Amino acid sequence: MSETAAEPKMAITVDFSGGLEMLFSNQRRHALSIPAHDKDGKPSNIAFLISHLCKTLMKDPRTDLFVLDDHIRPGILVLINDADWELEGEEAYEIQPGDNILFVSTLHGG
Amino acid sequence: MTADTGAASAAPMKSNDRRLTYEEFERYSRQMIVPGMGKHGQLRLINSRILIIGAGGLGCPAAQYIAGAGVGTIGIVDGDTVEISNLHRQVGHATSRLGWKKVDSLIAHLKDINPLPNYIPHPFHLDPQNAADIITQYDLVMDCTDNPATRYLISDVCVLLRKPLVSAASVQKSGQLIVLNCPPAPQGLVDKKYPPCYRCCFKKPPPPSSMVSCGEAGIMGPVVGMMGVAQAGEAIKIIASALHLPPSSTNDLTAPIPERNLQQPTLLIYTYDLESAVGPYSFRALRMAGRRKNCFACGENSTLTLEGIKTGNPNYVTFCSPPTTDHALPPEDRITASKYHETRARGELPAHLLIDTREKEHFSFGAIDGAINVPFGRFLMNAAAIKRDGGPPDQILPAEAALGDDTPIFVVCRRGLDSQETVEKLKELGVDHGGKRKIMDIVGGMKAWKDEVDPTFPFV
Ligand SMILES: [Zn+2]
């Protein structure tokens, strides 16, 4: 909460696909600088990133299209450097500088 | 027959060691000389049976290449008929075949490409009662459908019948493709290196409110076409290389899967932007996890059976669209499209503001005279900003509309849901000035306008 000037940040890219970009200014790629630690001083993980995105990047009020009950909503895949987040520890994965996190909504049309 | 194929004990017609006819050589030579293909690969295609479920934007391009490549038996499942709005993407149909059953139309087209395969029409939709009886007749399944309930059903049956599944989907400007259940391992045999099923990758369907179909959201022909063609590419590769089968010396499906047949499960996504060149088109190959230990369908303690599926367990419809709470506005806040039209035509309606909340692309097709376009998404965003930052509530209304405090507002949308939410939000913000101003919803949206007032209206 306190304004410490030296709050360490890290640079990552966040991508949205499958229609989710609509909720984020219609932009598919965002280069972000996010806090390296959460408010408890723990390294920022994916759960932190999701709430951070809702608070800072999402202008559309329809947050329920992105999160439900504080978790990513069903039907959205999370990819960490192009790998399913299941292979990386899901919400607990600690984000590294330079990481690419991709959120894809699964499609059903044809 | 040579010793190593004798064990397959297939009917002589199905021999993987027969001579090709002159026509077959002529017709397939250009793919047969591709390294890795050869006569063996071609005979595997000729002796195989592929089921294409859905004869639409994915199924049409997929089927063209499956037929062209010489797959011996090709089944097509679809209960729909050809409509003119299909033709920009469903390239297996034609203007001259409008109104035909899609399966018949597509098969007519395929026979023109290649008369040699045996084409089997299934002119109805796949459902839990017929799924297993149809799928069991084939070696590989291509999911070219357009709704999640059918996608989960197809995957479940493919797990139980041990059929490889090539699945694709597409909406608007994005497409996705994944090979599942290939090679098929027995249900309950859990090992991370075994391939996932649809449920392993997509545990739960998205809530219906967040789902859009091609009919509602639109679809670019080349995007869905690309995914259908890629599906055919995967299916041909799997069959021609026998990647779905146990080692050729045995017919034992429980034999361990050879390493060479285990592929890294990969989800391919294709995307592009229409309105800006900032984001170029992109293909991404995403690494997916293997079979999931606790998967409902293929996992360790799965109780899924073919009998269960037939008798409604699981229930695919409720799984994919849980009952929603339907909130309707009180009758005094609503007016039917015909009543609005009649009172307005008789001059009995006071000067008012008519807001149309459809997306601007829909609005560009046409609107009710005098309507002002305020797209729903942008409206919600502005409403949230006013709520957060304060400011006069009337700021949410279009600037070009000069309004008195009691000028009524009517709201119309596509089908009558967004407009109700808009009316609620406007009141919540205080735009009704404590009841001084009436704010009303036009029941059923522009769909109702077309049905009740103007049948020539270009409703999409
Ligand atoms: Zn599974």
UniProtKB/TrEMBL annotation, chain A:
It is found in: Cytoplasm. Signal peptide: none annotated. Keywords: Cytoplasm, Isopeptide bond, tRNA processing, Ubl conjugation pathway. C-terminal thiocarboxylation occurs in 2 steps, it is first acyl-adenylated (-COAMP) via the hesA/moeB/thiF part of UBA4, then thiocarboxylated (-COSH) via the rhodanese domain of UBA4. It comes from the Eukaryota. Gene3D superfamilies: 3.10.20.30. Pathway: tRNA modification; 5-methoxycarbonylmethyl-2-thiouridine-tRNA biosynthesis. The modification 1-thioglycine is found at G110. There is a cross-link at G110 (Glycyl lysine isopeptide (Gly-Lys) (interchain with K-? in acceptor proteins)). InterPro entries: Beta-grasp_dom_sf (IPR012675), Mopterin_synth/thiamin_S_b (IPR016155), Urm1 (IPR015221). One of its GO terms (cellular component) is cytosol. CDD domains: Ubl_Urm1. One of its GO terms (biological process) is tRNA wobble uridine modification. SUPFAM superfamilies: MoaD/ThiS. Acts as a sulfur carrier required for 2-thiolation of mcm(5)S(2)U at tRNA wobble positions of cytosolic tRNA(Lys), tRNA(Glu) and tRNA(Gln). Serves as sulfur donor in tRNA 2-thiolation reaction by being thiocarboxylated (-COSH) at its C-terminus by the MOCS3 homolog UBA4. The sulfur is then transferred to tRNA to form 2-thiolation of mcm(5)S(2)U. Prior mcm(5) tRNA modification by the elongator complex is required for 2-thiolation. Also acts as a ubiquitin-like protein (UBL) that is covalently conjugated via an isopeptide bond to lysine residues of target proteins such as AHP1. Belongs to the URM1 family. This is Ubiquitin-related modifier 1. The lineage of its organism: Eukaryota, Fungi, Dikarya, Ascomycota, Pezizomycotina. The gene is URM1.
Automatic annotation (TrEMBL), chain B:
This is Adenylyltransferase and sulfurtransferase uba4. It comes from Echria macrotheca. GO terms for molecular function: ATP binding; metal ion binding; molybdopterin-synthase adenylyltransferase activity; molybdopterin-synthase sulfurtransferase activity; thiosulfate-cyanide sulfurtransferase activity; URM1 activating enzyme activity. One of its GO terms (cellular component) is cytosol. It catalyses: [molybdopterin-synthase sulfur-carrier protein]-C-terminal Gly-Gly + ATP + H(+) = [molybdopterin-synthase sulfur-carrier protein]-C-terminal Gly-Gly-AMP + diphosphate; [molybdopterin-synthase sulfur-carrier protein]-C-terminal Gly-Gly-AMP + S-sulfanyl-L-cysteinyl-[cysteine desulfurase] + AH2 = [molybdopterin-synthase sulfur-carrier protein]-C-terminal-Gly-aminoethanethioate + L-cysteinyl-[cysteine desulfurase] + A + AMP + 2 H(+). Plays a central role in 2-thiolation of mcm(5)S(2)U at tRNA wobble positions of cytosolic tRNA(Lys), tRNA(Glu) and tRNA(Gln). Also essential during biosynthesis of the molybdenum cofactor. Acts by mediating the C-terminal thiocarboxylation of sulfur carriers urm1 and MOCS2A. Its N-terminus first activates urm1 and MOCS2A as acyl-adenylates (-COAMP), then the persulfide sulfur on the catalytic cysteine is transferred to urm1 and MOCS2A to form thiocarboxylation (-COSH) of their C-terminus. Plays a central role in 2-thiolation of mcm(5)S(2)U at tRNA wobble positions of cytosolic tRNA(Lys), tRNA(Glu) and tRNA(Gln). Also essential during biosynthesis of the molybdenum cofactor. Acts by mediating the C-terminal thiocarboxylation of sulfur carriers urm1 and mocs2a. Its N-terminus first activates urm1 and mocs2a as acyl-adenylates (-COAMP), then the persulfide sulfur on the catalytic cysteine is transferred to urm1 and mocs2a to form thiocarboxylation (-COSH) of their C-terminus. Its cofactor is Zn(2+). It is found in: Cytoplasm, Cytosol. In the N-terminal section; belongs to the HesA/MoeB/ThiF family. UBA4 subfamily. The gene is uba4.
